[in-house]
Design a protein that fits this description.
The protein is an alpha/beta fold and 288 residues long. It has helices at residues 18-29, 44-53, 68-82, 106-134, 145-148, 154-174, 203-212, 221-232, 256-260, and strands at residues 9-13, 33-38, 57-62, 87-90, 137-141, 180-186, 243-246. The protein has a single domain, classed as Rossmann fold, CATH 3.40.50.720. The protein has a 7-stranded parallel sheet, with helices on both faces. Bound molecules: nicotinamide-adenine-dinucleotide.
């Protein structure tokens, strides 16, 4: 089916790379006019140009959209350029570090709060007055790690759990204005993050991630973009407050808390356990 988003105006944050780039291109092919938003160093101009070359309509917006003034500026650009706003995709996010919490840096934690949480807060807040006028919708990036956690980047999973609850709350309070709010929860997707050479994951984590996924592979950004497109379209007119997993089955299988965690982590502490808490009563499993 084509032209599911004909006549719609969409902002896609983090639109210069990975899943966001695929969302921008999918939305444009389905007829939307797209604002491709990203950091100044992101290739958002390239994505907008590629869309234009294909015959679509897109414009780039470069700024840190976690700052309220920039978020407002992004919404203003959409309205100035295309006359309205129908769809906000809160896709921007960061995955800066892989470490056990005792070694996790404060910088990485703060960086995630800004770019994974405050970006969705600032953009949603700025967009809502326009979405009220069009009875539009918001689709935000959650994650399988927001449902079941992720070892070695536990704070990242926490930020995604926040997004799930935040968006569900928004769905309830904004229904009275005709605004729908939904979440897409990708599993391991084939972007820079899930490759040892381009992201913080080591080879073990990359391998475990694939093994833990019943479908046995990473998803493609395009497979995720298809679900964003459905939720953003009028076909999903009775869908709000929903979390759509696009994860190859990893969440309903075991997921990062189980199979993805390195086997060295699945052990009892090396010193003796309080007997009350020892699984085997009076003996430690290790001593058997
Ligand atoms: N790749 C995966 O396996 C995976 C899994 C689950 C969820 N996700 C989520 O999907 C989304 C996209 O991930 P991706 O893998 O495509 O990563 P990516 O790094 O390719 O894309 C994220 C983009 O957001 C931009 N960005 C971040 N903060 C920003 C800000 N404050 N202002 C402007 N731009 C900002 C980045 O520069 C980047 O271009 C993220 O929210 C991520 O948490 C990804």
């Amino acid at each position: 089916m084509k032209n599911r988003l004909e006549g719609k105006v969409a902002i896609v944050t983090g639109g210069g790379t990975g899943i966001g780039e695929a969302i921008c291109k999918k939305f444009a092919r389905e007829g939307a006019k797209v604002v491709v938003a990203g950091f100044p160093e992101d290739p958002v101009e390239d994505v907008a140009k590629e869309i234009q070359k294909e015959g679509g309509t897109a414009i780039a917006f470069t700024a840190n959209i976690s700052m309220e003034a920039n978020a407002k500026g992004c919404v203003e650009l959409a309205v100035k350029q295309y006359g309205k706003l129908d769809i906000l995709v809160n896709n921007a996010g960061v995955f800066p570090e892989v470490n056990l919490l005792q070694d996790y840096s404060e910088e990485a934690f703060d960086y995630m709060l800004k770019n994974n949480l405050k970006s969705a807060f600032a953009m949603s807040k700025a967009a809502l007055p326009e979405l009220h006028k069009t009875k539009g919708n918001i689709v935000s990036a959650g994650s399988e790690s927001g449902v079941i956690g992720i070892a070695q980047n536990a704070p990242y999973g926490g930020t995604k759990g926040f997004i799930h609850a935040f968006m569900k709350g928004l769905a309830v309070e904004q229904a009275q204005f005709g605004v729908r709010v939904n979440i897409v929860g990708p599993g391991p997707i084939d972007t820079a993050w899930t490759h040892e050479s381009t992201g913080p994951m080591d080879s073990k984590m990359v391998k475990n991630m694939k093994v833990a996924t019943p479908m046995g592979r990473r998803g493609t950004p395009e497979e995720v973009a298809n679900v964003y497109c459905f939720l953003a379209s009028d076909e999903a007119s009775y869908v709000t407050g929903a979390l759509y997993m696009v994860d190859g089955g990893i969440t309903v299988a075991k997921g990062p808390v189980g199979d993805m965690a390195d086997s060295s982590m699945k052990d009892q502490p090396k010193d003796s356990l309080d007997l009350e808490h020892s699984k085997e009563g009076h003996t430690s499993i290790r001593d058997k």
